[in-house]
Amino acid sequence: MDRKQLSRNIAIPAVILSFAGVWLTYMSWGVTIETTRFIRSKTSQLEALQKMSGARQGSKAGLATLEREITGPPPELERAVDRLLQDTDAELQPGAATPISGAWMHRESTLRIPAVSVESLGRFIAVIESESPPWRLRECSVVSLPQQPGTVRADLTLETVERRE
After folding, report:
1. Dist CA 43 CA 55 (whole Å)
2. CATH superfamily for domain 77-163
3. 125, 137 Cβ separation under 8 angstroms
4. Which of 6, 116, 123, 157 has a CA between 20 and 30 Å from the CA of residue 134?
5. Ordered per-residue pLDDT tens for the chain, 165 residues
């Protein structure tokens, strides 16, 4: 074999290999772009899951606090009404307990008081919110009664959480 023939035998496969290399690089570049998009998508999903996990841990901590602080059922609202609003014609409409999570229940009651002194109403709300677990005032509608100064008509929506054993 002479030198020209040897050069051709090496040059032709080298050119073919270089074209194959360029073609493979071009093909893998498209795959690399798609893979990069996929990895970015999965990274953003992972970040969202980590945020949710953090929020879940916060919820678990809050639930643990509730379980430590709330050891029994809420005080009976009817007794508090009888004890603190005895001079009124208060009408209590207890609501049904709604399950929240696990053994936890949400209870809501409506209290309508046709005439009550502002002082008595304030004292009643302060007492029921200070008990454990507290009744919380969620909604309140108060209308002044002009014929009786210092007296109001009140519609209250109260709520509490309780743990069913």
Report:
1. 19
2. Ribosomal protein S6/Translation elongation factor EF1B (3.30.70.60)
3. yes
4. 116
5. 677 776 777 888 888 888 888 888 887 877 778 888 888 888 888 888 888 877 777 777 776 776 667 766 778 888 888 888 888 888 999 888 888 877 778 889 999 999 998 998 999 999 998 887 888 999 999 999 888 888 999 999 999 888 776
